Amino acid sequence: MTTESIVNALSIDVEEYFQVSAFESVITPAHWESWPSRVELATNRLLDLFAEANVRATFFTLGWVAERHPQLIARMCREGHEVGCHGYNHTRATTQTRAEFKADIARSKALLEDASGAAVNGYRAASFSIDASNLWAFLEIEAAGFAYTSSVYPVRHDLYGSPNAPRVPFRPPATSALTEIPVSTVRVGNRNLPAGGGGFFRLLPYALSRALIRRVNLRDGMAANMYFHPWEFDPQQPRPSGVRLKSRFRHYHNQGSALERLRHLVSDFSWAPFRDVYADVIGGRCAMTAGSEAFARS
């Protein structure tokens, strides 16, 4: 087996720079409209790169973005990308009641399907906010008509993470036709190390990110599941005041060089949308494992 023989899953979480969870204490939703929108510019930058490299991806998009930029959704579809759902306005599932979560995903799914003219089968929770405390979210995702979700990151992190979750696609507890596709990690000793992109891709040397993906491909024999945000490739975005030093570092570090890193990434490996990479397991066509039961008990 070689890395060339494995097609990896590439995804973009489409949201504005001011909607990230780390900024929620300084920019509330009531003030979003007062900040200049950058999501269309930043996402088009990625679409241009993918068109140049002949790469297709899954774009997990906020319903809030689809309402305001339907032409962006149209371009994704026109160029062969998959449109997925990222909720309506990036509210973390752990802060919602079950009824609020149900209404949120139904609203956003409808908006995205109206904008795309196609069924939206994939969902990703804001900030990977499904864990053992809200397993009911999986039941609502399945009931809403989604075939798969990628809402779990099996790492320890101060803002998210479910370190006891399986590292492979699994059927969430109590569901019958839903697949959870966790973000990629590598197992070192008794810990999972992040290997799925996002801020880690900007913070770590590119050579290390490349080595981690190769390890997922060759040692684990799995496709890597990588994610990014449009704002990570937009160093000209406005910078709000009052953001904590750690959050500023995580958000802005290496944004100026991130696009060139991504260019190397799409050249060094093969990529496709979730619908293609995981076609054989999407829709619950994978087993409930001991790992998923441990995840539910943690």
Describe this structure in words.
By secondary structure, the chain is of the alpha/beta class. The chain has a single domain (3-297), classed as Alpha-Beta Barrel (TIM Barrel), CATH 3.20.20. The protein is built from eleven helices and ten strands. Strands 1, 2, 3, 9 and 10 form a five-stranded parallel β-sheet that branches. A three-stranded parallel β-sheet has the order 4-5-6, with helices on one face. Helix 5 (136-143) links the parallel strand 4 (122-123) and strand 5 (148-149). Helix 4 packs parallel to helix 5 (136-143). The radius of gyration is 18 Å and the shape is globular. The mean pLDDT is 93.
How would a crystallographer describe the biggest sheet?
Answer: 5 strands, parallel
Which overall shape is indicated by the principal axes computed on the Cα atoms? globular
The CATH class name reads Alpha Beta
β-strand amount: 5-15%
Cα radius of gyration in angstroms: 18 Å
In total, how many beta strands? 10
Oligomer: single chain
CATH topology: TIM Barrel
Class computed from helices, strands and strand pairing: alpha/beta
Under the CATH scheme, the architecture is: Alpha-Beta Barrel
Number of separate helices: 11
Query: How many angstroms does the end-to-end distance come to?
Result: 35 Å
Low-confidence stretches: none
Query: Could you say how many structural domains there are in total?
Result: 1
Q: Whole-number average pLDDT?
A: 93
* Helix-strand string: EHEHHEHEHEEEEHHEHHEHH
